[in-house]
Amino acid sequence: YEMQGSEDMVLLPNDQVLISSGFYFWDLENLVPKPEPNIFMFDLKAPSAGPQKLVIEGSFLEETPDFTPHGLSHWIDGDGVVYLYVINHRREGDTVECFLYNSESLSLKHRSTIKDESLYNLNDIV
Length: 126
Known about the structure:
Elements: E1 9-11, E2 16-21, E3 38-43, E4 52-53, E5 55-57, H1 60-63, E6 69-76, E7 82-90, E8 93-102, E9 107-114
Parallel strand pairs: 5-9
Antiparallel strand pairs: 1-2, 2-3, 3-4, 6-7, 7-8, 8-9
């Protein structure tokens, strides 16, 4: 898989690094092709495997064709569940997408979208 437009990464306690890919400026839509939006995992314990593309489960990508991942942050709850927050530069404005990360299946499950007119020009979330 080709990583294009990577902007951010987060290091998890299990030595996996999650990497955003597919950042795009919508102002260039008629000039430059939009890269495929992806989130990758790179395992620091097995670097020869290279970056692995995460599967985004469900219908999120079909329902959000303008998904443009940018900044990443994560939170791990008391049970070890990893929540990944992704800044998404959609055509109509910025959102924060919340996913659950499954390190065994290398997949993301979309949980919610945070959208508000006061959220604009986002780069990262803490």
